[in-house]
């Protein structure tokens, strides 16, 4: 049974929105999507003295993304709706902070952050919010969530949202720097702003 995190709302997973936008007419279907270059995936956080922002280089994303799903009576079940983000492709603005970020995520042992879509509740007419179940894997630790997705279709599929997470939920200890005087706070945020095309 999936756990519910009340702090996680308006989770955006672009592949979900794309499938909503193009509809579900077959009981089983395979499709491919491509992420437009103006899209963004950003991980941000704060310390007791400042903030940090790490932007993913989407040019390194393996494309196109292939999806397979079944249209069930109550939920749309997904088999391989997974987005893999290499830790080394996040740029935090400098060599030192990039190194700290990769060490925090235990990149040597676990080189990727993974987002996996499990299911989507069928969308309702004139309602841009739907229930989703998803799996997030960081540093080799996987957590399941039930939450709400907000999506919008304007020509292409355009989605924008933020996922608040806690480092300690994934077995990560918020690091301290400069003899313990600088401490990273437990909560981080993952912002996803995607424009997607079915190909």
TrEMBL record:
Mark the transmembrane ranges. Answer: none
Xref: Pfam families: YceI (PF04264)
- By its UniProt entry, which InterPro entries does this protein fall under? Lipid/polyisoprenoid-bd_YceI (IPR007372), TTHA0802/YceI-like_sf (IPR036761)
Boundaries of each Lipid/polyisoprenoid-binding YceI-like domain copy?
81-195
Q: What SUPFAM superfamilies is this protein classified in?
A: YceI-like (SSF101874)
Q: What is this protein called?
A: YceI family protein
Its lineage reads: Bacteria, Pseudomonadati, Bacteroidota, Flavobacteriia, Flavobacteriales
């Amino acid at each position: 049974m999936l756990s519910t995190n009340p702090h996680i709302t308006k989770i955006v997973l672009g592949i979900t929105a794309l499938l909503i936008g193009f509809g579900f007419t077959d009981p089983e279907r395979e499709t491919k999507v491509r992420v437009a270059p103006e899209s963004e995936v950003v991980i941000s956080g704060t310390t007791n003295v400042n903030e940090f922002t790490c932007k993913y280089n989407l040019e390194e994303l393996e494309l196109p993304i292939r999806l397979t799903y079944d249209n069930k009576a109550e939920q749309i079940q997904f088999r391989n709706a997974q987005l893999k983000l290499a830790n080394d492709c996040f740029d935090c603005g400098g060599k030192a902070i990039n190194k700290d970020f990769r060490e925090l995520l235990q990149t040597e042992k676990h080189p990727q952050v993974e987002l996996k879509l499990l299911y989507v509740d069928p969308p309702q007419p004139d309602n841009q919010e739907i229930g989703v179940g998803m799996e997030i894997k960081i540093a080799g630790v996987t957590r399941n969530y039930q939450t709400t997705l907000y999506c919008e279709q304007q020509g292409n599929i355009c989605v924008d949202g933020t996922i608040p997470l806690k480092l300690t939920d994934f077995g990560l200890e918020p690091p301290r720097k400069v003899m313990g005087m600088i401490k990273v706070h437990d909560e981080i945020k993952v912002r996803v702003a995607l424009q997607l095309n079915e190909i």
